[in-house]
Each structure stands twice: as structure tokens, then as C-alpha cells.
Amino acid sequence: MKNSCSVQVDLDSFATLLHFYNYRLTDRELKELSIFYPLVISRFLDLFRRLDIKATFFVAGWDVEGNPEAAESIKLLSSQGHEVASHSYAHQYNFTCLNEKEIESDIQKNSNFIENITGLKPLGFKTPGCCSTAALFAIISRCGFLYDSSVAPSFIYEFWKRMRSISKHNEYRSGKSDFISLISPRIPYRVSRSIWRYKLAGLSPQIIEMPFSCLPFTRVPFYSNSLFMFGENAINRLCYSLLKRNHLIFFMHGIDLVDLYKDNVDIRLRAHPFVSMPLAKKIKHLEVFLQKAKGDFIFKRSDVLAREILNNNK
After folding, report:
1. pTM of the entire predicted model
2. In the CATH hierarchy, which fold is given to the domain comprising 3-312?
3. Phi/psi zone of residue 109: left (φ > 0), alpha (ψ -120 to 50 degrees), beta?
4. Which residues contact 161 (CB under 8 A, 6 or more apart)?
């Protein structure tokens, strides 16, 4: 029986990314950067239409608020059968460092915001920067989510985040993660039946964790940047046989389908990995890999896969 693959796209806007790289933006700059959503969503819809894939998009309300074109793009995603999930409202990188009341307020605000646009309550949640704690699981459980996708079970990824945070202002530093997240399962699982149960109290058994995929043994993260860095041929030779042994959560960023120079976007975004790579080349990497994966996986939205895992583990 084939395993499942869920494709996730984090829609971190140009403005959000520039904040991450320590740039302060004027109102004029924010307005100029508002082209992000209609630009990238049209490209993702085209890519996934050609591949016949339904994906999950994580949206932060702050990026969309007051931008009618962005809101229409989100509505279009939902109307074409893709899932719209929550990426918090304010997209604060130190999200898990906030107090419990602030976290829950932000999560509820974004859920209401997305529901007002799509007519559907989001079932999935992911923190900015993929940070996870037992306290966070308790909050998202109370908020009625089906699954979380915040866990990055990788020492390498955690080390990279910490190094990137050293030079940043407090609000742009990475949030905290419990150590358990680094040694937790690499494949989707029910949280209350995992190693997390030692830190949980009164958690609903309904929460499913959908961690982004890492290679076995080394726990090296595998996502779109892996393809852009090594190419699909190297991936096929080195690790594809290992990846297809389990469910695959393949995540991307909205900026993956941006061409820094041809799209005439803010040149400061060149700090982001692979944004300077020609768009056609990135699309080719993604198409070749995902087309191959279609022969070995059944592609499903994250909410569909989470529901199946929940039902199979009752």
C-alpha cells in the first residue's frame, strides 16, 4: 500500500520576510509589497493544477488584512479545493515565547479571520518558525484544531534557527521549542500517544502532529530548499528510497515561486535562500520531483491525512 504525501505551502509574505531579515518598512513599502499573494498564488494554482495535486496553504492574517486582492486569492485557493490553514495572525517569530493568553488570542483571531474569508474554520495550525511546546498543544487543542504542523524534529534545523536568531531584534528571534520536539517521531502521529505524553496534562486525544519530513538517522530536513540545493537527480540517488518508506510532509514557501529580478521585487529579499534562482529552474525541480512522487505516494491535503490517521488510531 502506498504511503501518503501532503504538500504544504507557508505563505510568508515579502513584508514578513523582510521583517525577519531585520528591515523596518514604511507604509509605502508595505503597499508596494502587497503584490505577493496574487503573484504567488496564481503560480501555485497553475503548478498544482498541472500535477493534479490538492495542497495545504498556511496563512497569517496580518499579511492579508486590508488587502482585498490577497483576500480574493485566499478565497480562490479554497474554492479550488485546496486547504487554508492557520499560520498565526501576527506571524511573530517568538510566538511560543508569548504568554498563554496572548497565544490563544492570536490563534483565535486568525481562525476567525480565515473563516470570514473562506467560510470554513481552519483545521490545521503551524507556528512561525516551526517552534513547538507542550503548552502550545494544549492551547490549539482547546481552540478546536484537528492537527498541528509546528514540530521540526531535527537538531540541525534547531541549531540553524538559533544561529540565525543571534543577530536579530527580540521580536524576530525564534520562539522556544521543548527538547522533546527534536527527538519526537518524524512521521505524522497522535500527540497524546507519543513521547509528548510525558509533558501533557488533560490534552484532547484528537490532536494529530504533522511534522515536516526529515531523513532517518540524520534527521536532516527535507523540503523545497533541499531540491533547489541538490537537484532532483541527487535527491533520487541519495535519499528518495528512504523518504518513500513513510508518509511525506513536503513543505514549501510562497517565495519559492518568485523570480527576484524578473518579478521586480524588493532587492533586499536576495537574503532569502534561492530567491535569486531563475523561476523556471525552480519550477522544473518541483515538477520533476512531485511527478515522480506521484508514482509512489497518494497525495492528500493535510486535513484529510490527519483525519485518516486519527480514525486509524482510535
Report:
1. 0.94
2. TIM Barrel (3.20.20)
3. alpha
4. 129, 174
How distant is the alpha carbon of residue 253 from its chain centre? 7
Domain spans, the chain: 3-312
C-alpha–C-alpha distance, residues 59 and 88, integer Å: 7
Give residue-wise pLDDT tens across range 256-311: 999 988 888 888 898 888 999 999 999 999 999 999 999 999 999 999 999 999 98
What is the CB neighbour count within 10 angstroms for residue 172? Answer: 18
Separation between Cα atoms, residue 139 and residue 107, nearest integer Å: 9
Short-list 179, 293, 292, 301, CA closest to 246? 293
> Are 140 and 107 in contact, with CB atoms under 8 Å apart?
yes
Cα distance between residue 290 and residue 287, in whole Å: 5
What is the C-alpha to C-alpha distance for residues 175 and 187, in angstroms, rounded to an integer? 22
Helix, strand or coil for residue 186? coil
N-term to C-term CA, the chain: 20
Residue 201: partners with Cβ closer than 8 Å, 6 or more residues away: 138
Rounded CA-CA distance 211/213 in Å is 6
The CA-atom distances, in angstroms, between 112 and each of 84, 119, 172 are 12, 10, 25
Are residues 42 and 287 in contact, defined by beta-carbon separation less than 8 angstroms?
no
Element holding 299 (H helix, E strand): strand 297-299
Tell me: the pLDDT tens digits for 126-146? 999 888 888 898 899 889 999
Cβ contacts of residue 155 below 8 Å, gap of 6+?
A: 182, 219
The amino acid occupying position 277 is M
Q: 28-50, pLDDT tens digit by residue?
A: 777 767 789 999 999 999 999 99
Instruction: Give the phi and the psi of residue 229 in degrees, each rounded to 5.
Output: -75, -45
Position 312, amino acid: N
Q: Residue 87 in contact with residue 66, Cβ under 8 Å? A: no
